């Protein structure tokens, strides 16, 4: 993974000292509440319902075991001994003290971590595929590009006070595992006819109150022009994005108002002017720099192995243990390198808020990464953790250790692997709680045979329309709404975050908390009754439409 | 006389910022609103004092491109400090239109923006009257270097140092 040099380190250290001074001036009454707000947000600090929340950046989801151990230590020293993994691959501390945040940031800086721009109206953490580097369908490893974007966006002098937050995702593979079409800028790595790398640029995607799928504005951006083109997009947005109404301030609203074609033209004009002034090519990325960053993402030295023999041995182990075979089926994924697998550690056991992990579990995760991989791991936008490059012959041992630490719940990709925001238990924006709904669903569907029979199913829960739980792109989406002070839940169906991204449609009137789980069960019944052989929930929904689901859920009891 | 930060130091501010509608022109150095400048340019050149122009955050610097050579000072307003449009305006004045005079941040500008404002090409800062300018000036050097090209740095860090 990327290792800081003296310049990266100095910048992060200076940021800690800047924020320490800002915090002190705030506590001394020299900075008003209003002025301190964006300063603390751009250092990751929210003030929530019960306590502040600190969001730590995990650039494109990549962490070292050293960093994970540091998070465990921080959670013990400054918090309540657990952390939360978010849908944007970051980590949140739920109970830090405002006055101690500078010390936490200093601890983070000591392991090359930070919380810069994890909130606020600025360029946020760039996200990507958790299987980067090992996915069989990869066109090019997106992580070096994410790091190049991270550096460009960090303390960018022109774009720290945008109309609204700004999120960039990079997709390097055929299948989209980064939900890149639901970002302010989605970059898809592509090759042109000459085999040169470039980006297909999409803008104006996003969830939130007005979910929109991004529009293509440039089918092939040569790689060396990445940063000048991003500057052009951001400048057009910074100058012309809506600043009067925060609900109309995201770039998607501007793109829609102008139309994607006009927006593309405006960017093209701005970009042409930047290039026209840049006769020496100063703004261009050099091959040198691209190669320098790429060297930080080497593939391990894979041993050549007898894949067939290993698979045979694995099958024998699976035949002995139903639990292991279930885990193999749901939580383990083949890599493009034969003999190696990428393992997903589940952060979704029933009874725990999805994405929450204790300090001890963090240390176990770090140990697993050290023992079975190269000391690195990836956080996922589904709020799990992936450890790649595990030699398949060691999977059984891996599983036993992961299971002992509660990290091997074999439900990845099923209904029980739901995405869930912190909801009304923590968040001051929420209209309704989401964690208890997730738990009630997990409790209801404890029968793993039934869960497996349901197959691939994405269920996403948000506690309010800001959509941190990505309910618009769940096959089943649940949205918490407030009805006269009571918590109700709207059901949406048919969302999808893959290449053929789709936004879910509202099924009907919202359900009370007591009726949600029952409603979900009815949806699943309709699916099971109507599916064709091997057909997943989403495909059945797309084939038969919403009516049958609707009739069942809202049928009056006879 | 009001104080401000100019080129990193506390300085006297000799300029009067005129609001629209401009009724009377005071003696001395004046900053006039863009609209007033566009309409009264000829008569303003007869002024004894210096004349500069200020733009609000929703006004485009492109309107001034033919006048830049005669303006010693352009001020960019921040109606709210979180309105970041003037950051782009300053960069355009410097990077695209080669403006050589002073660019001043006026309005609701805060100490914690100084480093980034300076990088975008601002040279002067009118902070709120109660601000200790000497102390605030320290924020101009919150960071010793940045990754990006900007008005103060023609080469990105990776080309200079890596």
Concise account of the structure shown:
Chain A has 558 residues and is α+β, with helices and mostly antiparallel strands. Chain A has helices spanning 6-27, 33-41, 65-78, 101-109, 143-153, 226-240, 251-258, 260-277, 287-294, 307-320, 322-331, 359-372, 395-404, 435-444, 448-454, 513-530, 537-544, 547-554; strands at residues 45-47, 52-56, 62-64, 82-85, 91-93, 127-128, 168-171, 185-191, 197-203, 215-222, 332-334, 340-345, 356-358, 376-379, 385-391, 419-420, 459-462, 476-483, 486-493, 505-506, 511-512.
Number of domains of chain A: 3
Whole-number mean pLDDT of chain B: 96
Query: Which structural class do you get from the secondary structure elements of chain B?
Result: alpha/beta
Major beta-sheet overview of chain A: 6 strands, mixed
- Overall CATH class of the largest domain in chain A: Alpha Beta
Multimerization state: heterodimer
| Proportion of helical residues of chain B | 10-25%
At the fourth CATH level, what is the homologous superfamily of chain B? Aldolase class I
Alpha carbon gyration radius of chain B? 16 Å
Which term fits the overall shape of chain A? Answer: globular
- Structural class of the helix and strand makeup of chain A? alpha+beta
- Could you tell me the strand content of chain B as a percent range? 15-25%
């Amino acid at each position: 993974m990327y290792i800081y040099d003296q310049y990266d380190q100095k910048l992060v250290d200076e940021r800690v000292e800047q924020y320490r001074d800002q915090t002190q001036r705030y506590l001394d009454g020299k900075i008003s509440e209003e002025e301190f707000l964006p300063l603390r947000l751009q250092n990751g600090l929210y003030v929530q319902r019960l306590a502040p929340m600190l969001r730590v950046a995990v650039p494109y989801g990549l962490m070292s075991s050293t960093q994970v151990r540091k998070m465990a230590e921080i959670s013990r020293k400054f918090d309540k001994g657990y952390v939360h993994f978010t849908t944007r691959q970051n980590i949140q501390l739920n109970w830090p003290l405002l006055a101690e945040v500078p010390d936490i940031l200093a601890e983070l800086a000591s392991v090359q971590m930070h919380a810069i721009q994890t909130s606020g109206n600025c360029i946020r953490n760039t996200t990507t595929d958790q299987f980067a580097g090992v996915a069989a369908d990869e066109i090019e490893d997106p992580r070096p590009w994410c790091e190049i974007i991270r550096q460009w966006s960090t303390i960018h002098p022109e774009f720290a006070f945008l109309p609204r937050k700004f999120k960039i995702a990079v997709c390097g593979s055929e299948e989209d595992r980064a939900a890149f079409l639901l970002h302010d800028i989605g970059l898809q790595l592509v090759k042109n006819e000459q085999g040169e790398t470039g980006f297909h640029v999409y803008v104006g995607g996003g969830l939130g109150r007005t979910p929109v799928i991004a529009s293509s504005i440039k089918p092939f951006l040569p790689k060396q022009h990445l940063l000048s083109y991003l500057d052009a997009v951001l400048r057009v947005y910074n100058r012309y994005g809506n600043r009067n109404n925060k609900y109309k301030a995201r770039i998607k609203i501007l793109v829609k108002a102008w139309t994607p074609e006009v927006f593309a033209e405006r960017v093209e004009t701005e970009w042409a002017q930047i290039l026209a002034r840049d006769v020496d090519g100063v703004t261009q990325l050099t091959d040198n720099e691209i190669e320098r960053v790429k060297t930080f993402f080497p593939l391990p030295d894979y041993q050549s192995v007898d894949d067939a023999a290993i698979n045979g041995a694995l099958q024998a182990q699976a035949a002995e243990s139903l639990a292991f075979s279930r885990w193999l089926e749901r939580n383990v994924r083949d890599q493009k390198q034969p003999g190696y697998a990428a393992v997903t550690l589940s952060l979704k056991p029933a009874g725990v808020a999805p994405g929450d992990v204790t300090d001890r579990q963090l240390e176990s995760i770090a140990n697993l990464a050290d023992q079975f991989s190269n000391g690195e791991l990836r956080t996922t936008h589904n709020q799990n953790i992936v450890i790649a490059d595990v030699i398949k012959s060691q999977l059984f041992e891996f599983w036993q250790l992961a299971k002992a630490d509660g990290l091997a719940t074999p439900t990845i990709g099923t209904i029980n692997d739901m995405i869930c925001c912190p909801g009304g238990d923590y968040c001051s924006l929420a209209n309704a709680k989401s964690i208890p709904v997730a738990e009630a669903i997990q409790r209801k569907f404890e029968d793993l045979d039934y869960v497996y029979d349901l197959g691939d199913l994405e269920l996403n829960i948000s506690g309010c329309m800001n959509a941190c739980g990505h309910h618009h792109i769940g096959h089943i989406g649940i949205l918490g709404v407030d009805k006269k002070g009571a918590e109700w839940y709207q059901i949406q169906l048919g969302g999808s975050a893959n290449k053929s991204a789709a936004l879910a449609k509202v099924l009907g009137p919202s359900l009370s908390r007591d009726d949600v789980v029952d409603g979900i069960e009815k949806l699943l019944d309709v699916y099971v009754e109507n599916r064709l052989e091997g057909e997943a929930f989403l495909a059945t929904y797309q084939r038969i439409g919403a009516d049958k689901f609707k009739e069942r859920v809202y049928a009056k009891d006879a | 006389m009001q104080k401000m930060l100019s080129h990193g130091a506390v300085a006297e501010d000799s300029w009067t910022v005129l609001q629209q509608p401009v009724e009377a022109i005071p003696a001395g150095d004046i900053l006039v609103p863009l609209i007033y400048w566009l309409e009264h340019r000829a008569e303003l050149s007869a002024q004894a004092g210096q004349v500069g122009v200020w733009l609000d955050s929703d006004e485009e610097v492109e309107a001034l491109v033919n006048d830049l050579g005669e303006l010693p000072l352009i001020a960019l307003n921040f109606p709210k400090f979180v309105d970041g449009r003037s950051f782009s305006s300053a960069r355009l004045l410097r990077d695209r239109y080669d403006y050589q005079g002073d660019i001043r941040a006026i309005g609701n500008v805060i100490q914690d923006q100084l480093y980034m404002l300076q990088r975008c090409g601002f040279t002067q800062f009118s902070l709120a009257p109660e601000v200790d300018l000497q102390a605030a000036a320290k924020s101009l050097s919150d960071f010793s270097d940045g990754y990006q090209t900007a008005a103060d740095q023609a080469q990105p860090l990776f080309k200079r140092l890596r």
